[in-house]
Amino acid sequence: MTTPYTAPLKGNYTLKNVLLETGYVSDERGIKATKTELFCIEVNAGKITKIFPNDPKLATAVDAKGYLMLPAFSDMHVHLDKTLYGLPWQAQSPKKRTVLEMIAYEQEIIPELLQTSTTRAEQLIDLLQSYGTTFARTHFNVDTTSGFRSLENLQKALDSRKESFNAELVAFPQHGFFYTDSAPLMKDVAQMDHVAYIGGVDPYGIDKNIEKVLDYTVKLALDNNKGIDIHLHDGGKEGIHTIEYLAEQALQNPKLQGRTFVSHAFVLAQLPLAEVERIAEKLATAKVGIVSSIPFGDLVMPIPTLLKHGVEVLVGNDNVQDYWSTFGPGNMLAKANLMAEIYGWRSEFDLSRTLRFATHNTLPLDDKGNMQWPKTNDSAEFVLIDASCSAEAVSRVSPTMALAHTGALYWKK
């Protein structure tokens, strides 16, 4: 890993003065604070092998300095392959607004960007890691302009960071399956073992045929044992039909359940509450999740309603610095903070629950305040945060002081 972290501590080691959450403090009005205690944590071969009462005099232990241990952060929607991060600042052009206009623009600039895309992907990974992220679900373009070069260059970047960062790959036909002749390329890339998901974008807005695109996507996923992650900006009846058609496919094909996602799904922010609840029930039954970059423009996604009905909701930065958007901070705690502000999650309990959007649904305490993370034999995938509890970490976007990926511990310089 490059700056801002030191060389890693590997193998078998023990941390002392590690702050862990142990429960909630309540009064007649409800939860008012989070209990914490200091512990020692033993790590061996990438696992947490022992958790025991703190011994500040343990000379062989590494001092965690009272920092709060939380699950490492996961960015569940980011485009590492086509960032402008690392290049001189440039804001989004007001002349490129529609998805089709952006496709035309990409076709112009991709050949030049590919020349340095590996280096810039490495720099973006370093930025994500500086905020405590050790895992990402990253999309990579598959199109007639770049072919497989976006994947090849991204893989080089991921290989260079493999000791400290891991990713699952989504093959993303940014220029449509059929609007450009990308379907044959997608068929080939779907057969690659290291690709986890088949992506897609606006079956109606780009390809003008919802059923044709989704049927092709589902077939690729089923034939190659992949998940699905569709980017959906389409609104109106076309957007609703896309979501419901994909949910029906998941209901008919249980192998897709829990592995199918709709990213963005902005149409849900445009519907009456009763309609959102109806669709949410269908999504929950089909085990189709929603992935959001929180927020997008002036749209406020109905995340609380989706959660109420049991829909899995994942969160990512999407665009950190590129020609689609410049607002992604690269910081998953900042994303959780923004969600708490948007949805009014201000209490100690609600703020602590909001942490899950940064950690891919892993939380130190369950809803009743029982300790559930970390446990012995858990993967040693954690961050050390300068905060007194997870609620403070979310509210203050507290800094990451160290992170561990499969046991390798990196400290901030």
What order do the helices and strands come in, and which of them pair?
Blueprint: E1 13-27, E2 30-44, E3 47-53, E4 62-63, E5 68-71, E6 73-78, H1 99-113, H2 117-130, E7 133-141, H3 149-160, E8 166-172, H4 183-189, E9 195-201, H5 210-224, E10 227-232, H6 236-252, E11 260-264, H7 273-286, E12 288-292, H8 303-308, E13 313-315, H9 332-343, H10 348-354, E14 382-385, H11 390-396, E15 400-405, E16 408-411
Parallel strand pairs: 1-4, 6-7, 7-8, 8-9, 9-10, 10-11, 11-12, 12-13
Antiparallel strand pairs: 1-2, 2-3, 5-14, 14-15, 15-16
Helix pairs in contact: 2-3, 5-6, 6-7, 9-11, 10-11
Please tag this protein with its features.
eight-stranded parallel β-sheet, globular, 16 strands, four-stranded mixed β-sheet, 31% helix, 413 residues, alpha/beta
Q: If you had to describe this structure to a student in words, what would you say it looks like?
A:
The chain has 413 residues and is an alpha/beta fold. It has eleven helices and 16 strands. It has helices spanning 99-113, 117-130, 149-160, 183-189, 210-224, 236-252, 273-286, 303-308, 332-343, 348-354, 390-396, and strands at residues 13-27, 30-44, 47-53, 62-63, 68-71, 73-78, 133-141, 166-172, 195-201, 227-232, 260-264, 288-292, 313-315, 382-385, 400-405, 408-411. Helix 7 links the parallel strand 11 and strand 12 (288-292). Helix 6 (236-252) packs parallel to helix 7 (273-286) and helix 10 crosses helix 11.
